[in-house]
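Handover notes (outgoing to incoming on-call)

Open items:
1. Ras-related protein Rab-36: sequence verified, structure written out, both below. Nothing else pending on this one.
2. Nothing else urgent.
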Amino acid sequence: MKTCDTGKDTCGIIKHETVQESKRTVITQKSCLHSNSCWADPISMNFGNGITQRSGITCCVGEACQTASDPLPPMNTVPNGLQCPGCYAENSYQCSEDTVRCTAAQTQCFDIAGKITIGILPLKTASKGCTTESECTAPKGVKGFDVDIVTFE
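Ras-related protein Rab-36 structure tokens:
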């Protein structure tokens, strides 16, 4: 068991899943953080063309972390009737759109362009698609990436 630094009062288990062209990548991080970084609902994003991302966090203290639940519930692919423009591109602030059918709790459309910094490497990206309300309401800085957002023209 690790002792957290001052100001970090809880443990977090953060799980991020990306599916692209039938390839599934899952990253799980365990870290000390401030309890205001904990949000209740997982984030789900659908960019179209078989590209999806999901993120979730479970917060715990002490021995409860040994049996903490998986922060990502099973994938729900039932369409909900909402459709959004969708696309994803790297090394560009623009992408070519298709129509994406939103599923389950994906009740919002999103349109984001900016630099995503992973480690020390900034990557220009553009993305549009369906997402959950929790993506819109998660506190800044806890969505998994450092994003400098640039608005589409």
